Protein backbone atom coordinates (compact mmCIF):
# COMPACT_ATOMS: atom_id res chain seq x y z
CA UNK A 1 0.00 0.00 0.00
CA UNK A 2 1.16 3.53 -0.57
CA UNK A 3 -0.26 6.86 0.48
CA UNK A 4 -0.44 10.20 -1.30
CA UNK A 5 -0.23 13.84 -0.31
CA UNK A 6 -3.55 14.95 1.10
CA UNK A 7 -4.50 11.48 2.33
CA UNK A 8 -5.51 10.89 5.91
CA UNK A 9 -2.46 9.31 7.58
CA UNK A 10 -2.93 5.62 8.38
CA UNK A 11 -3.57 5.30 12.09
CA UNK A 12 -1.27 3.17 14.20
CA UNK A 13 -0.40 2.14 17.70
CA UNK A 14 3.10 0.83 18.44
CA UNK A 15 5.23 0.15 21.49
CA UNK A 16 8.02 2.58 22.19
CA UNK A 17 11.54 1.90 23.42
CA UNK A 18 10.27 2.41 26.97
CA UNK A 19 7.52 -0.21 26.39
CA UNK A 20 4.66 2.29 26.32
CA UNK A 21 1.98 2.20 23.67
CA UNK A 22 2.10 5.24 21.38
CA UNK A 23 -0.73 5.98 18.94
CA UNK A 24 -0.80 8.55 16.15
CA UNK A 25 -4.17 9.77 17.48
CA UNK A 26 -2.37 10.88 20.67
CA UNK A 27 -0.87 13.71 18.60
CA UNK A 28 -4.07 15.15 17.12
CA UNK A 29 -3.74 18.93 17.17
CA UNK A 30 0.03 18.69 16.70
CA UNK A 31 2.15 18.25 13.59
CA UNK A 32 4.05 14.97 13.40
CA UNK A 33 7.33 14.20 11.66
CA UNK A 34 7.17 10.45 11.15
CA UNK A 35 10.49 8.86 10.23
CA UNK A 36 11.03 5.25 9.24
CA UNK A 37 14.59 3.95 9.47
CA UNK A 38 16.02 0.55 8.52
CA UNK A 39 17.95 -0.59 11.58
CA UNK A 40 19.26 0.69 14.89
CA UNK A 41 23.02 0.85 15.38
CA UNK A 42 23.80 1.26 11.67
CA UNK A 43 25.83 4.27 10.54
CA UNK A 44 23.30 6.13 8.38
CA UNK A 45 20.43 5.52 10.80
CA UNK A 46 22.57 6.82 13.65
CA UNK A 47 23.51 9.89 11.58
CA UNK A 48 19.86 10.57 10.72
CA UNK A 49 18.49 10.24 14.24
CA UNK A 50 21.37 12.17 15.80
CA UNK A 51 20.67 14.98 13.32
CA UNK A 52 17.07 15.04 14.58
CA UNK A 53 18.29 14.96 18.20
CA UNK A 54 20.66 17.86 17.63
CA UNK A 55 18.02 19.92 15.81
CA UNK A 56 14.98 19.03 17.91
CA UNK A 57 14.40 22.72 18.73
CA UNK A 58 13.51 23.32 15.04
CA UNK A 59 10.75 20.72 15.30
CA UNK A 60 9.56 21.78 18.74
CA UNK A 61 9.38 25.37 17.43
CA UNK A 62 7.15 24.15 14.58
CA UNK A 63 4.80 22.48 17.08
CA UNK A 64 5.86 19.10 15.71
CA UNK A 65 6.43 15.79 17.44
CA UNK A 66 9.18 13.61 15.96
CA UNK A 67 8.45 9.87 15.97
CA UNK A 68 10.97 7.36 14.57
CA UNK A 69 9.92 3.85 13.55
CA UNK A 70 11.89 0.71 12.71
CA UNK A 71 11.24 -3.01 12.72
CA UNK A 72 13.72 -3.46 15.58
CA UNK A 73 12.36 -4.78 18.88
CA UNK A 74 11.50 -2.32 21.66
CA UNK A 75 14.44 -3.73 23.61
CA UNK A 76 16.94 -2.98 20.83
CA UNK A 77 15.44 0.48 20.38
CA UNK A 78 15.73 1.15 24.12
CA UNK A 79 19.46 0.49 24.08
CA UNK A 80 19.95 2.50 20.87
CA UNK A 81 17.99 5.46 22.27
CA UNK A 82 20.01 5.46 25.49
CA UNK A 83 23.39 5.13 23.75
CA UNK A 84 22.61 7.97 21.33
CA UNK A 85 20.74 10.07 23.93
CA UNK A 86 17.81 10.51 21.56
CA UNK A 87 15.14 12.95 22.73
CA UNK A 88 12.06 11.65 20.89
CA UNK A 89 10.17 8.35 20.85
CA UNK A 90 11.50 5.32 18.97
CA UNK A 91 8.68 2.98 17.99
CA UNK A 92 8.89 -0.71 17.22
CA UNK A 93 7.08 -1.90 14.11
CA UNK A 94 8.29 -5.44 14.74
CA UNK A 95 5.30 -6.91 12.89
CA UNK A 96 5.94 -4.60 9.91
CA UNK A 97 2.31 -3.49 9.63
CA UNK A 98 2.84 0.27 9.90
CA UNK A 99 5.84 0.34 7.55
CA UNK A 100 3.76 -1.57 5.01
CA UNK A 101 0.75 0.75 5.46
CA UNK A 102 2.95 3.77 4.71
CA UNK A 103 4.59 2.12 1.68
CA UNK A 104 7.89 2.19 3.54
CA UNK A 105 8.97 -1.45 3.62
CA UNK A 106 11.72 -3.29 1.77
CA UNK A 107 10.41 -6.75 1.02
CA UNK A 108 14.07 -7.77 0.74
CA UNK A 109 16.96 -5.80 2.17
CA UNK A 110 20.71 -6.41 2.31
CA UNK A 111 22.12 -9.75 3.45
CA UNK A 112 18.82 -11.41 2.54
CA UNK A 113 16.96 -9.69 5.38
CA UNK A 114 13.26 -9.48 4.65
CA UNK A 115 10.79 -6.85 5.82
CA UNK A 116 12.95 -3.89 6.84
CA UNK A 117 11.63 -0.31 7.00
CA UNK A 118 12.68 1.96 4.14
CA UNK A 119 14.24 5.23 5.18
CA UNK A 120 11.30 7.60 4.87
CA UNK A 121 9.99 10.91 6.13
CA UNK A 122 6.36 11.98 6.41
CA UNK A 123 4.89 15.19 7.75
CA UNK A 124 1.39 14.80 9.12
CA UNK A 125 -0.50 17.98 9.96
CA UNK A 126 -2.57 18.74 13.05
CA UNK A 127 -5.65 17.24 11.37
CA UNK A 128 -3.93 13.96 10.51
CA UNK A 129 -3.43 14.76 6.83
CA UNK A 130 -0.18 13.79 5.06
CA UNK A 131 1.57 16.96 3.84
CA UNK A 132 5.03 15.59 2.93
CA UNK A 133 6.20 12.20 1.70
CA UNK A 134 9.72 11.00 1.00
CA UNK A 135 10.32 7.26 0.68
CA UNK A 136 13.91 6.45 -0.23
CA UNK A 137 14.88 3.27 -2.06
CA UNK A 138 18.55 3.93 -1.24
CA UNK A 139 19.06 3.18 2.45
CA UNK A 140 22.35 5.09 2.32
CA UNK A 141 20.59 8.39 1.57
CA UNK A 142 19.14 10.76 4.14
CA UNK A 143 15.74 12.46 3.98
CA UNK A 144 15.64 16.05 2.77
CA UNK A 145 15.48 17.70 6.20
CA UNK A 146 15.18 21.17 4.62
CA UNK A 147 12.03 20.09 2.74
CA UNK A 148 10.58 18.65 5.97
CA UNK A 149 11.28 21.94 7.78
CA UNK A 150 9.83 23.99 4.90
CA UNK A 151 6.65 21.90 5.02
CA UNK A 152 6.38 22.49 8.76
CA UNK A 153 6.90 26.24 8.32
CA UNK A 154 3.90 26.36 5.94
CA UNK A 155 1.78 24.53 8.53
CA UNK A 156 2.47 27.01 11.35
Please tag this protein with its features.
156 residues, alpha+beta, seven-stranded mixed sheet, 27% strand
Describe the SSE topology.
Elements: E1 13-16, E2 21-23, E3 31-36, H1 43-54, H2 56-61, E4 64-70, H3 74-84, E5 90-92, H4 97-101, E6 105-108, E7 114-117, E8 120-124, E9 130-135, H5 145-155
Parallel strand pairs: 3-4, 4-5
Antiparallel strand pairs: 1-2, 1-5, 3-8, 6-7, 8-9
Helix/strand order: EEEHHEHEHEEEEH
Structural category is: alpha+beta
Q: How are the strands of the biggest sheet laid out side by side?
A: 2-1-5-4-3-8-9
* Number of E-type strands: 9
User: Rounded to an integer, what's the Rg over CA atoms?
Assistant: 14 Å
Q: Return residue spans where pLDDT drops below 50 for at least 5 consecutive residues.
A: none
Percent of residues in helices comes to 25-40%
Describe the biggest sheet? 7 strands, mixed
Mean pLDDT comes to 95
Q: Beta fraction of the residues?
A: 25-35%
Distance between the termini: 29 Å
Amino acid sequence: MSINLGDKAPSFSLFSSDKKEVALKNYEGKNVVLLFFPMAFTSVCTEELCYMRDNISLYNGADAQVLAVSVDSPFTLDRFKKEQELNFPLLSDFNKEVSRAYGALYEEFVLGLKGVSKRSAFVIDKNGVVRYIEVLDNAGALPNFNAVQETLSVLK
